[in-house]
Each structure stands twice: as C-alpha cells, then as structure tokens.
Amino acid sequence: MTDMAERFSSNPIITPSDIKPSADGLVVTCAFNPGAFEFDNKIGLVLRIAERNPAIDGYVESLSITEDGHIQSEIFAKNDSRVTIPDSRSFIVDGIEHLTTISHFRLAWSEDGENFTVEDKPVLQGSSTYEALGVEDTRVTQIDGTYYLTYTAVSHNGYGVGLQSTTDWKEFTKLGLIFPPFNKDAALFSEKINGKFQILHRPTGTGIGGPFIWSATSPDLIHWGNHSCIATTRPGMWDSARIGAGSAPIKTEEGWLELYHGAEVLPGGHKYRMGALLLDLDDPTKVIARSHDPIMEPTAPYEVEGFYGNVVFSNGQVVRADDVLLYYGAADSFTCGARLSIKEILNSLKS
Amino acid sequence: MTDMAERFSSNPIITPSDIKPSADGLVVTCAFNPGAFEFDNKIGLVLRIAERNPAIDGYVESLSITEDGHIQSEIFAKNDSRVTIPDSRSFIVDGIEHLTTISHFRLAWSEDGENFTVEDKPVLQGSSTYEALGVEDTRVTQIDGTYYLTYTAVSHNGYGVGLQSTTDWKEFTKLGLIFPPFNKDAALFSEKINGKFQILHRPTGTGIGGPFIWSATSPDLIHWGNHSCIATTRPGMWDSARIGAGSAPIKTEEGWLELYHGAEVLPGGHKYRMGALLLDLDDPTKVIARSHDPIMEPTAPYEVEGFYGNVVFSNGQVVRADDVLLYYGAADSFTCGARLSIKEILNSLKS
C-alpha cells in the first residue's frame, strides 16, 4: 500500500445533493473534479456540475446547449437497435457518441479549506459552438494576479481545450480554443520558463501513439507550439491505459512536481489512480523522476462506488508550505479533499 | 459523372521503379502524394517515397529510424497470434500499430510540369524523435520568398504536423511540431489574413466529433491558436468517413478555393475522392460553398489498383492562370498529374 493521501475526515466534502440545479427540472448527478485557487484569503473551487433531466425508465437522453443558450434534449429507447450503452457516462447511436449529462462550472468558497459554501448559480456554462455539450474539469493557474482557466470544451466537433481568464471571479475573458480535439487535461505552469509560457496537455487518438502527456510553449498563452511528448503510458502498470496532468505543476527546489492521473483497464472498467512526475526546472520537457507506484488510489467507499466507480481524479490543489491540499473527484460523483506532503512525494520518487 | 480532371496522358508520371532506394537493400514501394511548388522557372515536387526491406514470405516487418540515424527493423510472423493485418499499410501487434513502410521526401524537377527528373537522394528524412517512423505528405506554401513545408511527422508517440522552411531547397530550418498528435493534412495559406497566418488542419480521435477540417491562426507560424472547425464529414455522401485539406488554398475573386480529399467506407476499403471548399476571403473559417459531388474520383486503372486502391489524394498543386496543375497520389502508389479549371470548379459550386 503506497497511498500517502491523508483524506479529510469530512469526505466527501461536496455531494450532488448540496447543489441547486442550474434550471428548474434538472437533476444534479455529479459535483466533482474541481479546479482550486486562493483568492481574497479564501480557497475557491471551480466545481464541475453534471446535470440531466429526470431519468425515464427504458430511455437514455442527452442534452446540448443551443446557440441562443437554451438546453435541448435528444431521447432514445434503450432497446432501439441503433443504441449501445458502454457505461453510465455515455451511449452510442449509429456510431455517434452521446453524453448522458451536461456539465457547467460552479464556485464554492471556504475559509478553512474543508468546509465549503457552494454558490447557487453557475459561474460559467457552455456558451459557444465549441461548448455546446458543456465545459468540464478546469485547471486554475494564477500568473501575476490573473487567474487562467484551462478546461475541456465539449461539442459535436469533439473535445478540445478552452482558455478563459479572470481577475475577480465575476468577469471572464475568453481566449479561444487553445488545443483542438481530441485534447484535454491541460495544466498551465505558473510562470514563464526561458521567456515562454509552458503547458502540459493530453492529446488522444487511434493507431500509433496513445493518450500521453505532452508539453507545449507559447509567447502569449493563446498560440501554442513546440509540442513535445514527456510521458507515455506504461504497459502492465497502474497507468497503462491513459495518463493526464492534474493541475499546475508545483515549483520545488528539486524540480516541477506534477501530480497526474493514470488509468488501468480492469474487468469492471477503468481504475483511476494518482502518481507524480518530477520535471526539470529549466526544461520541463525533461522528466527527472516518475512514481513507480501510485501515491493515491481509490479505497474509500465514496471513491469505490458512484456514478463511475474506482476513480480518484484531481485537477485542483492549493499548496501550503509542505502540504498539498488536494481536491479531487471521487467515483466521478463527489468532491473530496486530502493532504499530501511534498517532501514525502519527492522522497518516494527517489526510491 | 462529375469528374472534371483532365488527366495527363503520360500518367502515372512517376512510379516506384523510377526511384533509387535511399539505402542499399531497401525496396521502394510507393512514390506518391507530392507537395508541389515553383522555383527557378521549374516546377518542383516533394515526393513521398515509401520503402521497406524485401518481403519475406510469412512475415511482416516495420522499420524505424534510431536517434543516431540508422534504420532498425522489427519482424513478426504473420501467424503469430498477437498479429493482425488490417490492410497493406499497417499491422497490429498486441494492440500497437506498426507501419509496413517508412517514408522520406525526394525532390523531382520539371520544365514543363509533366516530365520530371527525380533526384537520386532524399532531400529530407525523419530526423528526430518525432519523425522516428518517417515523414509523409508535405504541403508546400510560398510566403514572401520562403517555402514552408507542413508535413506529417510520424513517431511512436503518434502522428503530428511538423514545419520546416527553406529558400533554396538545399538548407532547411526546423520550426518544430506545430500540431501534436493526432493531426495531419495541414495546409498553410499563402498570405496573412487580418494580420495573422492561417492554416487548415485535420485532428482525428475517437468518441464525439470526427476527422474534420479545422482552421487555426498564428502570429509567427510556430505557435497556433483560435482553433475553429470549418467542415465536417457528411453522412451518406462521398466524404462521409474522413476529410482533409489538400494544399495551400487558391486565392480567387470569389474566395479561397481549397481542394480537399474525402473518403467513404466501401466493402473493399476506403475510397478517396477530391472535392472543393470555397472560403470567405476575409474570414476563411466561413464556408461559402462546398462540392455536393466530387470533382475527381478514382477511375483510371492506376488509381483503382495499387498498394492501396481506389485513391486519388492531392497535397500539391501549381496554379497557372485559370489552370490548376494538380499533382496527386494514385492508389497510394504513383504520382500523377491532372489539369482542372478554376472557373469550372467555381461554377460547380454554384449549382
């Protein structure tokens, strides 16, 4: 057992029942995968809230946002011969994948990092062609007083990475789709390196290659190039099926410490665990060390059972001296918290 | 029959037997998918030359380039239970795709656009981690006296888009991987639009979305953003399975004319045809018109039969007044040429 996460005793700290739906009649199914940040002496979370219409026996339904901001629905009978249902997250009709829920972002605030008050209304919803199927899993990086949100923008054209900025968490500036499909898990570094902004991202496709972690650089945060693969999946290990960056890399004396998720295909589905990568301070495309064993894995009941079980997945953290306050999605359902020691993680990378 | 391509009577104009292998012992299997350009009063082609070792009965083999520039080989028995062989282009071992050939670029020169002399040696070969499995299908765009090559860089990490520049076709400058996997078919516009460079590209993945044509912009050709989907596949039509840009869009009074390829899945495999897109001059993300029927399809014997039959695929053209001299790969084997009238294509887009 290598799990080094000291879970909050109050876990899960936010559940779907804590969330007011974004519109009358909608059901909140998941409140998870939060981005995290510090603002005004508080810890803020940008929760991913997944919603659907009330379930109808024998039917599956997907929702999308129209150009004028309305929600529209498509319903199919489960016994329709065109319909296949791989798992709770999606169904397929005539080869086209549909999501069973649509996600928006909701802010939650805390003085102590453990007890959060969730706002009543969305802070950001899908609002363009590239977000017609919602927004998901944002990472928040603060650079010189501005917060940057890198998030999954989901649409009928695929899922890519959107970028928005804010200074006050009220007004947001859209900076465009910075990575086209099929890409997600983008984590921006908190400072320029060698005069350029730097980011981790995770393209996916078929054939040669796989869902690996890549790096890119930018002069202006909007345009990205110099793509370079820094870590691949490892056959036979806990991160054999897919990997992806967590949130902004943590600057330590020994290098940039990046907590990442890795998934393995098991008989019941994917199992998501967390591990660490240590990247060179001057050239973060160089991997100094990588976890052999996971630093955290789904063991608590709220991590094992849920909308999609056996998942710990983090895209949000706040650093306090040696402590990482890790906010994470459990079982694709709940928001949880845990404390990890940076020293302990770094030591584990030396063995 | 909507095919409006007047094929060269000498087609195929270049075949594998015209090509000297890049190293002793290698066999040239394909000489196809050329980029095209004008230089020094000549027409130049950047041929994609695919090579392999001599076939051994009962075995499949893939080649790759090591970091020090040597070619290494992996051989598997066809009856190995781990091996599956979807078609002539690739085989799969334990879920990992291997290519049966490795490609480099070779220059060919012509005074009349129809009779070409092929150089004896490669002009560019895979030469970095991102090209360990070769370089393929370059588009050439001339901007202010510099030629830019956007090409598919193939490696174990997937296929992305590499960029190199040259002014003399002898010395080349590498400008990095401009699009990470899984991306190809990148065609750069020949001038800035609203102060930015503009490009078409084709990401591929699984799930929601598909192999569609996207646009992006750049301040410096190296870093790209503002990704935007401009055309999707069309169910039930000749371009239902995948689409991708040809070479640099042609500036006409009515808009940017882009000749693109579309594939359809038929019982024997994919069939690749060519069509046209007309894009707004000031905002090329706006599609003014798109071919209902293909403007060219595989009909000649050299297009129907070959390494991978039923393919016409162009990534190179030279414009002379109203004529497009279209250079194209036929059946993934040969280089061919055809003449199309810009007026006739534009008229076909009005009906």
Q: How would you portray this structure in words?
A:
Chains A, B: Pfam families: Glyco_hydro_130. Chains A, B: Keywords: Glycosyltransferase, Transferase. Chains A, B: GO terms for molecular function: glycosyltransferase activity. The structure is a homodimer of 351-residue chains. In chain A, strand 13 and strand 14 (173-179) form a beta hairpin. Chain A has 2 helices and 26 strands. In chain A, the strands form 7 sheets. In chain A, strands 19, 20, 21, 22 and 23 form a 5-stranded antiparallel sheet that branches. The mean pLDDT of chain A is 96. Chain A has a single domain (15-350), classed as Glycosyl hydrolase domain, family 43 (Tachylectin-2, Chain A, 5 Propeller), CATH 2.115.10. With 351 residues, chain A is mostly beta strands. At the A-B interface, strand 8, strand 13, strand 14, strand 17 and strand 18 of A face strand 8, strand 13, strand 14, strand 17 and strand 18 of B.
Order of helices and strands of chain A: EEEEEEEEEEEEEEEEEEEEEEEHEEEH
Tally the structural domains of chain A: 1
Strand content of chain A: over 45%
The CATH class of chain A turns out to be Mainly Beta
Q: Number of DSSP helices of chain A?
A: 2
| Most extensive protein-chain contact, per-chain counts | A-B, 49 and 49 residues
Q: What is the residue-averaged pLDDT of chain A? A: 96
Q: Using the CA coordinates, give the radius of gyration of chain A.
A: 19 Å
Strand count, sense and barrel status of the largest sheet of chain A are: 5 strands, antiparallel
The percent of residues in helical segments of chain A reads under 10%
What does the overall shape of chain A look like?
Answer: globular
CATH architecture of chain A: 5 Propeller
CATH superfamily assignment of chain A? Glycosyl hydrolase domain, family 43
Count every beta strand of chain A, where a strand is a DSSP E run of 2 or more residues.
26
